[in-house]
Amino acid sequence: MNYFILKYSLIPTYMEERGKYRDEHLKLAKDYAERGLLVIGGALADPADEAILVFKTESEKEVAEFARKDPYVQNGLIAKTEIRKWNVVIGNCFEG
Question: Whole-prediction pTM value?
């Protein structure tokens, strides 16, 4: 298994706009988490200009699929997405 980071660059009005799509977004995230693909995720604070989601999967295909399905992306709350493979070296929550 590999780890991938999905980085979202958020639009300036993200905090005001996200409420309309939050339930759908969280439903999608919960589905990926229950399937063991999404390990952890959330928006950065002060300022809330980026979000980071960490996936554990064989390839970045599932990560790209998540981004395509995400209502935040579909409705323009995400200015840019970036997927990067992450070579994890240490950390209790990432072992195994």
Answer: 0.91
